[in-house]
TrEMBL record:
Native organism: Sporosarcina contaminans
Keyword Hydrolase: yes
Protein name (Swiss-Prot/TrEMBL): NUDIX hydrolase
Highest classification ranks of the organism: Bacteria, Bacillati, Bacillota, Bacilli, Bacillales
Gene3D superfamilies xrefs: Nucleoside Triphosphate Pyrophosphohydrolase
Domain of life: Bacteria
EC number: 3.6.-.-
Cofactor: Mg(2+)
PROSITE patterns noted in UniProt: NUDIX, NUDIX_BOX
Family stated for the protein in its record: Belongs to the Nudix hydrolase family.
Length: 185
């Protein structure tokens, strides 16, 4: 049975997310004080493949991680957008790549339901072509990096790619492509 929320207070609200403090009651009557919940917007990411089998990634500095990370293009949902609209916009803005084919949904997953409210929707975009220049936000500094799709496991093993959502998106896309290849035979 779901917990009952007895009280809920915000410690702060920001454009990046909110921190909420809940008091909850479990089914057996146990009261849990100070259950902190991070409220974040849902976000999207995509494995973007070019016509010649390259994966389009971005490299950027991430302050909390205090390092540069190679990642799949990603971003949060803006008001009124579908997940598909959001990933097309994010890929275009971050990389300049677009495809004439619609994004293929790979799944929607809770990021960390123990402490966060958001989920990530993962996509595969095939046959992308460079059509635009990047349209980065004022604080974004991204370098577009292309790699052969087959080289990604090596980059993960060598700890060149360490961002979890990039690793999971790669394996989701690889699984999808393997199943599609088997079904096409």
């Amino acid at each position: 049975m779901k917990w009952k929320v007895l009280d809920s207070k915000y410690h702060f609200k920001t454009p990046f997310g909110n921190l909420r403090n809940d008091t909850c009651q479990m089914e057996d009557g146990t009261i849990i004080q100070n259950y902190y919940v991070n409220e974040y917007a849902d976000w999207v990411n995509a494995v973007v493949m070019t016509e010649d089998g390259q994966i389009v990634l971005v490299e950027q500095y991430r302050h909390p991680g205090n390092d540069f990370y190679i990642e799949v293009p990603a971003g949060k949902i803006e008001e009124g957008e579908t997940y598909e609209d959001a990933i097309i916009r994010e890929v275009r803005e971050e990389t300049g790549y677009l495809s004439d084919e619609p994004p293929i949904p790979l799944g929607e997953f809770m990021v960390n339901p123990a402490t966060q409210t958001n989920k990530v929707a993962m996509f595969l975009i095939n046959n992308a072509k460079k059509r635009y220049e990047q349209e980065l936000d004022e604080t974004e500094r991204l370098e577009v990096r292309l790699f052969p799709f087959s080289r990604i496991p090596e980059l993960i093993q060598e700890k060149e790619i360490t961002q979890f959502f990039t690793v999971s998106a790669y394996y989701m896309a690889k699984d999808y492509l393997s199943r599609k290849e088997r079904n096409d035979e």
